[in-house]
Design brief:
Strand content: 5-15%
Number of strands: 4
Helix content: 40-55%
CATH architecture: 2-Layer Sandwich
Number of helices: 4
Structural class: alpha+beta
Order of helices and strands: HEHEHEHE
Strand order of the largest sheet: 1-2-4-3
Length: 127
């Protein structure tokens, strides 16, 4: 009985957003894009409605190759209706209309550590 109650509490507290870090292990662009595809499919299968994608901004500070490749892939996916949309990290703030819609639907995301920080190294995916 206690196990069932604990399991129910876990499912009720599940965040609507999965975090995927593409920077781990300093992968090449193709490796990062492959991991992105695998993790996106898993997030959809697991029932997440949002994914926080950590792609980094590049060690030089002028925009990394993984970030550029991921953003290109996201635009292609959106154009093919493979995902609802995305919010780049620089727009992930309550002052952004699309972000505000997400926050109204999922108020627990007001606690997200990147919200309002203009983090160029992340993108929020709307599945």
């Amino acid at each position: 009985m206690a196990f069932m109650r604990a399991q129910r509490n876990l499912s009720q507290s599940k965040s609507p957003m999965k975090t995927v870090n593409l920077e781990v292990g300093m992968p090449l662009i193709q490796q990062a894009l492959s991991k992105f595809g695998i993790e996106l499919a898993a997030a959809k299968q697991q029932g997440f409605s949002l994914v926080k994608l950590i792609h980094g901004y590049g060690s030089s500070g002028v925009g990394g190759e993984i970030r550029i490749a991921v953003q290109k892939r996201l635009r292609e996916m959106r154009d093919k209706s493979e995902l609802r949309g995305y919010i780049f990290g620089e727009d992930w703030a309550v002052s952004d209309e699309q972000t505000w819609k997400v926050i109204r639907t999922h108020p627990e995301l007001k606690q997200d550590r990147d919200l309002g920080r203009r983090n160029l190294g992340i993108t929020i995916l709307l599945l």
